[in-house]
Amino acid sequence: MHVHDLLVCGDREFFHETFFKKAQEKFQVSFTELGGVGTSISFLKKRMTQLEDGILVTPGISSEKIVEACEQSFGAVRAQLVPCDNSIQLEDVSQPLKPEDTSNYRSIVGMASYLGRDRPDLIFTIKELAGKMSRPLWSPCNT
């Protein structure tokens, strides 16, 4: 079994003396932790920085990065006010992507899935695109 990306918040002593020791008895475990004001860790593509009065969470993926990746793979994208319209749910009879384009499509949708946590307005579109990952058709990035 592989467990990845577990975030634990709480008492540092309890974590080290109880939780971590018990976890090490059964599993191979590694971790990073905030070490005081000004220190940072990465977790699920986000940067978490400890401040004096809390934690600053900085998104690691931006829509600009995704657009740039899409344009590098598929050409210029079309600007629009909404992420998609209802035609995304219609049967698509487009040609399947070439293997190298399929890999790029999956990578872009993977990046978008991280962005979706910070952009709820994109969740539906990302879900629809992710549903096509097993057999992606001509990319919606350049239609």
Would you write up a description of this structure?
The chain is α+β, with helices and mostly antiparallel strands and 143 residues long. The chain folds into 3 domains: 1-31, no CATH class; 35-60, no CATH class; 63-142, no CATH class. Helices cover 37% and strands 11% of the residues. The chain is built from 4 helices and 3 strands, in the order αβββααα. It has helices at 12-26, 63-74, 99-116, 123-130; strands at residues 40-43, 46-51, 54-59. The chain has a 3-stranded antiparallel sheet, with no helix packed on it. Strand 2 (46-51) and strand 3 form a beta hairpin. The chain is elongated. Residues 139-143 have low confidence and may be disordered.
Poorly predicted sequence stretches spanning 5 or more consecutive residues:
139-143
Query: Structural class of the secondary elements?
Result: alpha+beta
Task: Give the overall form.
Answer: elongated
Count structural domains.
3
Summed up, what is this model?
With 143 residues, this protein is of the alpha+beta class. The chain is built from 4 helices and 3 strands, in the order αβββααα.
